[in-house]
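Convert to structure. Protein one:
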Amino acid sequence: MQLDLFEDNRPAILLNIADEFIRSRDLSQAVSVFEQLLDEYPNDRYCAPLLKEVSEWQDTLTVINTSDPECFRDIWLRFGSITHSPLRSMVLSLLIDWIGGLPHPERIYFPPDYHFGHVLLAAGRYDETADCFFAALSDANIPRGKFMAWHADALTLANKEADAPESYLNAFLDDPSTVDVQFIKNSAIRNLYNSLCLEAVEELEEYGELAWMPVWGWFEALFALPAPQAITGTGSFDSFDFDRLIAENERPVPRIWFDMLTYAERLRVTARDSRELAAVRRLMKKTGSFMFETYLNKIRGTR
């Protein structure tokens, strides 16, 4: 009876042995066990595809040049097709060890979305992912909006949602066109984007919805306004400066509008009845009538 039970369980036992070899990164031994299993149980429906998959990855990983970042990109592109969980975990851990051993791995980026941070993300190492994406921002050649949003995504997944909005805000302020908003991990940001698209159609046609996300995020109490000098780079400016910026047409209107919003809110506290507040509000209305009406509703408490 016990012998029959052993024979019945033998395929599962051999599969477990093969998986242990995979976890220990010994694919050659894993392949041998799969071959033995297929020889003893030719009708086993799991063995043949596993043998094929593990054999192919054994061939790939044996010849890889671990000093060439492009090789890792090729592995990453194939990684999503791995169906066997132990093999997937093993390949992922190898990638992390190999890429992490290179000089400045945070600087290795192949558009549109291959970066060491994504490998760490797939492994659930969210704090390290956030640090990796943040470190990449020191490279002037990377798309800043994309990476700041990725950094914010990692903070969200690391349960640091209180820190994430600032990074999302900076992404939409500095480089909104490169943000992959459809892949954002934060549900509040996704909901913000959806509400903007539904309610603010009039303002979106020329500049696009992502450029208006900072303004809309303040309306929805998701983004905070920074100190004025943090946005403009100077503590000495007024409505004439904003008028000049608009006339020069070198910066997107939504970006200037956010600066004007920041300035107007400071004036509303420090000089509520000043002509300057009236002047900057006229510019806000002139350059974004729907946003201005929404702003008035916000400060009146009717939104």
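Protein two, convert as well:
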Amino acid sequence: MRPTPTNRAAAAVAPARVPCRMILVRCIALAALGAGGGLALPLPAAQPAAAPQLTDAWQALSIGSYEDAGAQFERTGAGREARLGAAIALINRPPVTPSSLAEAQSRFTALAQGDDEAAHAARYFLGRMQQLHPIAPDLPAAAREYETLVATGADDTWCRLALVKLAILRLTLLPGAGNPAARFAAVEPLLAQTRDAVTRRDLHLVIAEARMSRRVYDPVTLGHLQAALAATDAADALRPDILVQTGRLAHLAGDRATARASYAAFLRDYPKDRRCYTVNAALTHVDGSFPP
């Protein structure tokens, strides 16, 4: 599987409370169960400890200081954002044990009962825990968590992340999901669940790559690649890769005009890319057999 979405940290600001949506980038990268740690520097004994701010706790979490971050979240109070941060710190703080995972799962489950952004984040992390559990992964349970989140229709960051993860599970990993045609059919409707251009791009790419891995070189697969390409611009790091993929697939599918246009666009827009030599060679073969 290839989850294509991108990763990007911010600095702490004033003592104002930071809403979940302002720190999503920091905790998205912590979705997998990992390791790391860090200790806070103690204040001088004569100086009273200042009350920790959520901004500081998220900052500690974003740099991998899970123990420090967890302690700061616990001291900020019982708010839902603080409880979410503490649970995320817990699944990353070494040593990761069955008891720490069970405690984190219990915390996420309690938070997921609401209908705010913290609830959606908690539901997403429940899915990730089931999918990536180091002892007993449960892919059907992970898919159910993602489906529950998508069914809210919120189309927020967490729902969009869940859509791509759900597509990957349905296409490649879920047992008993049927033959390739059934798997493809189970994913196509997910495109209608979001208006976000980047998420739709990622879904088109996941579907196209799953079809190509099954050697389904047809106009439907090509259409998914072209839709993904249409959602990019020159600054998108994925655009040159998609252009090359589109050219190769179009050639294999017999659409030589699209192959020629894709290769030519790559050579025009990325003249210093190391693949230019091979792409130029492929372009010269467009009117002949597909090169070995």
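Confidence is low (pLDDT under 50) at residues 1-49. Residues 1-38+53-182 form one domain.
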